[in-house]
Amino acid sequence: MASTNGETDQVLVEEKSSVRIFTLNRPKQLNALSHTMVSRLLELFLACAEDPSVKLIILKGKGRAFCAGGDVAAVVRDLTQGNWKSGVDYFRQEFTMNYVMATYSKPQVSILNGIVMGGGAGASVHGRFRIATENSVVFFYLMVYESCISRLFAMPETALGLFPDVGASYFLSRLPGFFGEYVGLTGARLDGAEMLACGLATHFVQAERLPLLEDALISADSSDSAVISSIIGEFSHIPNLKKNSAYHRLNIINKCFSRRSVEEIIAALEREAADNKDDWISSTIQSLKKASPMSLKISLRSIREGRLQALVNASSENSEWLAMSSVGKLAKILLRAILLDKDRNPKGCRAILLDKDKNPKWEPSKIESVSDEMVDRYFSKVNDDDWEDLKLPQRSNLP
Amino acid sequence: MEKVNFRTQVLTRHLQDNHRVAATATATAISSSPCLSYTPPEVSEQPSSFDVNSMRKLMDGHNLEDRDWLFNLMIQSRLFNPKLRGGKVFVVPDYNQSMEQQREITMKRIQYLLDHGVFEGWLTRKGFEAEMRKLALLEGGAVQFFGTKRHHDRWLGATENYLIKGCFSMTELGHGSNVRGIETITTYDSKTGEFVINTPCESAQKYWIGGAANHATHTVVFSQLNIDGKNEGVHAFITQIRDEDGNVCPNIRISDCGHKIGLNGVDNGRIWFDNVRIPRENLLNSVADVSPDGKYLSAIKDPDQRFGAFMAPLTSGRVTIAVSAIYSAKISLAIAIRYSLTRRAFSIAPNAPEVLLLDYPSHQRRLLPLLAKTYAMSFAGNYLKQLYVKRTPQLIKTIHVVSSGFKAILTWHNMRTLQECREACGGQGLKTENRIGQLKGEFDVQSTFEGDNNVLMQQVSKALLAEYVAAKRKNKPFKELGLEHMNKPCPIIPSQLTVSSARSAQFQNDIFCLRERDLLNRFAAEVSRYQAQGESKESAFIASYQLAEDLGRAFTDRAILQTFMEAENNNILSLLRSMYVLVTLDEDAAFLRYGYLTTENAATVRKEVAKLCSEIRPHALALVSSLGIPDAFLSPIAFDWVAANSWSTVQN
């Protein structure tokens, strides 16, 4: 598909004095990260790290999306054709890229002016500055969001969501209270105001002011976080949360999504529903019941584990987002999932993913049939001859 | 000026050594020069040679999901005082809170956990995991133990839900470890069908009653029971001490124990009873009962046995104390060892980079043997919990002896570990935010409550002596308390210990058994020598305290080693087991004193300890990661202590 120069076309590069602007350029696919894009970004980031003339990196997307995450459809196509190793390679590269971003010595400004999903969130939240706009929509396919997403964007791959996404459980677990569990399990969409409120974004800027902001950053010619922060601050404001925002329901969310298990979370929501008529509660219950039981349980476990232990606490200036840590761990979960699926029924995958079946048949189909031991398998050490533990690059610029 | 130049040179060398991206070494790089900066041990250390998750599973043993969930609940709540330090969140005690504030926050935390369903089924549900949870609630445990169905139905559910807040009134001002001597007295009034409880004198006031000062509504009170002028010994009664609004009930007086060196979140109080009347049904009657017309009824005729039965819940207290002591040691070791893998001090050669603390053999010797012991005692703790949960009447003696020995040894080990870790962290150990100092305060009392450690160790030796005497008298083999090895011929220790035999499980088991066997023989001989001189058994025992002390340790160390060997399933654990045994041989003078080790053998052992340190060193990070303590429960020096102390954190 990609022409010889297509590789560079998928990521546009602009050099403006000491600033490098990388634009994800696959607008038709909502800038889903292809293998080519991931390799290219990795290469660019590594090169800029070595280049003393680069002081700041701006990452943005062309079209109505910032980035729709990993190109899962391609990966699953590989998987179903028995070429699972290539899928593994893809994820490995994506994780490496995220790790490099997370441990990066120079400031990264991500402009999230549009859709951000899964891997797209991974590519941005590890940067120091994350700018939301009125066009921002973020969601995590920690779980399947079949009906909603495919209707909205006709994106078959978003229907997969069989497993937690890149580093998602790490930053979801760092959201206030149990909001991360809520977002991760229900696949709820967050707008720019909500992203700012819960800390996924560091600033909110009106989209029309973005060009001016870029100019200001370029002329600032600085790597100093404080300088950059104050420049962005001049363009940003704090928007009001919309009236029916889930963020207003943080109390109920904390009460219910803090429960021990998926079953208990649903039971707690049902108790709430009995006490007060609230469409939000019933639709939340609905979305949980529609999701893949296995994926719900894996997601919950990985958020909770992500909260407890960061494997590598990459140091950087007071940014907890930079602790990419969980990458190694999550990579293992994900790759483990792929290996398990390889052993299991690859048809299940295809039905949901490529054939756009409206009624996915989950296996197991009931939440209570997913035992702790079954979930354990996704978190256990892989003993496979083909398996190579994810090797993260030694970051030469780690402080 | 020369000094400045020298310093600049050193800095430059460091930059070149550790900082391959020389290009960034401009003005900004000087402010964060690499010699003073932090590299995560996960980056600098070799990847682990074993699976950390499986090791954690083996170490924690049970209820892993429950634990992780609880950790999550705590980390995500403001009540647990999360603080952002160096890019990470830590839940830390608020050190500026007064005693009253600490108590208040404790109650709020309990309420928070209760609201989130944490205690559901802790006292009322059945099964192994539920049994483990039960260990956590002493007062509920007492009701469950001594009570019968009528008490369980009425009280357990309410306790679990904190509708009633219970406390456990045993200790008095004048009597602590000697429970049999307590002076609170209860009589029965058959006209009204009530018991009447009294505090007859000041030394009989209940003391250290956890929860009594501010919050408890009910208590299980231990008292002498006097029926028709005859003292039937210590019994337990449920008494209400506050009404629903928190007002102290009539005829009850309550006062505070005041500020303590630790555990100020617990409102320890003192209670006086002035003719407090309670219904006859409030006697916890699993052991003995009083009929409506005032007849004393008990299935256990022997008052000693009856008393023993009443002491059972203290066993549960000892189990939880022993286990929690080991978790405290785990926290401090994880902090100190992680710090020692990132902090450097002194260069060996003039221009060489400074050396990591844990690369000094002396620093390894300070921390790694304690880590090995903590592993050993962690398995011992798991064994003790299992033993307790599977308890049967036949096992009461074993449980009493094992829990006494383990509680003493594990809590002492914890305090020693805390002190060593505090010192190993240098000045940073002084900061309360780094936890270890605070743990010292909080855990110090563990050597005293639920049985003073020294008293417990004497009880271990006493029990062993009783076994010994019984076996000799009946001329029967030993079959309890792990003394079966005494039936076999005395183990032979090679006079020239080789390196391979020093590391063999056979030798290690042999020498621990030899010590126990020989000390038990010596102890029995010394006690009977005193008795032959006309001393009573009791005073003979008191006079033989030195041997009693050595024997108590010998028994406990041997029992711990056996739990280790049973749990051991890989090479790294074998390494730790060897370390546990050899460092014990190196430290306990008894082995040389009584000649179990020749001086040459002792020298071999000492060399081997140093060698084991260097062999364990590469696994240090993975071994502390396997302890399963979430990052948020460690402290800033366990992670990026440079970022945690940077100027930008001062400005924020």
Which ranges of chain A are low-confidence, i.e. pLDDT below 50, for 5 or more consecutive residues? 1-6, 142-166, 311-336, 338-358, 384-399
What does the largest sheet of chain B look like? 6 strands, mixed
Rg calculated over all Cα atoms of chain B: 28 Å
Give the number of DSSP strands of chain B: 15
Strand order in space, largest sheet of chain A: 1-2-3-5-7-10
Shape of chain A: globular
Largest sheet of chain A: 6 strands, mixed
Shape of chain B: globular
What is the number of helices of chain B? 25
GO cellular component, one term (chain B): peroxisome
Protein name (chain B): Acyl-coenzyme A oxidase
Family (chain B): Belongs to the acyl-CoA oxidase family.
Active site (chain B): 450 (proton acceptor)
Describe this structure in words.
The complex is a heterodimer of chains A (399) and B (652). Chain A is α/β, with parallel strands linked by helices and 399 residues long. Helices cover 48% and strands 10% of the residues of chain A. Chain A has 18 helices and ten strands. The longest helix of chain A has 19 residues. By secondary structure, chain B is α+β, with helices and mostly antiparallel strands. Chain B is built from 25 helices and 15 strands. Chain B starts with a helix and ends with a helix. About 4% of the residues of chain B have low confidence. Chains A and B meet through helix 15 of A and helix 5 of B.
